[in-house]
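# step 3/5: fold
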Amino acid sequence: MDDGCGAAERLARGTPLGGALDTTAPASWVTLDAEVRALSHRLADALPTRHRLRSLPPGPPSSTEESLIALALCHPDGRVRAAALDRAAGAPALRPLLVIRCADWVGPVRDRARALLADVSGAELAPLAGLVLLLARRDRGGFALAALDRALRDGPGADVAPLLTSGDRAVRRFGHGVAIDRRLLTPVELARTAAFAPGDVRLQALCAEAALARTGDDDEGVVDLLLSARSGMVRSAGVTGLRRTGRHDEAASYLADRSAIVRACARYVLRQAGVDPLPLYRSMCAEPAEHPAAAAGLGECGACEEADTLWALTAHPLPAVRAHAVAGLRALDAVRSDRVEPLLDDPVPAVVRAACRALLPYAAGLDRERLRARLAPDRLRAARTAARRLLDAQDLARTRGLSGL
């Protein structure tokens, strides 16, 4: 397909659909629709007419005829598009264009396309889910989405299964939404998806919430799966599930989780069991190497008197402890810019980033020349990045008329 021509021009030459465009990519069909209209301005003779369509033999179209009908379905003349619709109904390869015409700007074309799509089964609509969801963003694009949703909810559960493993993220989310509403997945299956679905936070959240909603007192396997997730959001759901399954005490081991939301959930679960997390944090901070994130947790739930402990931890030999100690000072609202600024020169990027975040509210009062000195090429990249951020924040504060803090 890399011949310098667009899909519309390849179809006009008689190239079969599969050779003219990527028929599995929803965007390819949308692009084809636009390309045919553009082609009509310079190659009008290459596009089919209603007379040409009427001359086609009855029955399923050949590959050459499919190319012709595809062009007609995208024709700038609504009468040609309308004439092509009935031929498309009997050709599964052309159903994507039938879906597109359901959002047509011409009422009669749109109505006829919708009437034809209403007769398509859920099993036949499911492979078009990506295109349906893409077109749903358009005006008049909701019909096909409603038809797909209705077909998948009312039809066999097997029609939903292919959507759950689709390579299209939007399709996976949509399919899981239907599967959850229809209870096609067990709580363990949902928890496994939540724990291991790669890089899709929304899907993870959807499945974690659904898994917990159906978890009983004896469904410890669901909670354990959620607790094993790399995602902090999913682990937080697992920690919350500890309360539901009567395992409150286990929440203590998540007080020093690397994720702030997990730590917050752990504190909630312990408090529901009548346990004050603050003494536990103090004990953990006495051995910070074992629980680096306990310093952040101490700041999140402690009082101003915890600041001395956290300041001492900013000099700890373990970088994770230093970074979390700075985060704890931020949470405690106990940051002192003169004491945090030297950490911009820390050899570990995580500590530098934590210091930068802590200093941003105080950027207007920082010494500009010291910040500019950190832009030197021989400085670590993290230090240069932090200095740029702080200088930008300083400039913004000054344009707003803020004095040094």
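# step 4/5: annotate
Residues 335-405 form one domain.
# step 5/5: archive (pending)
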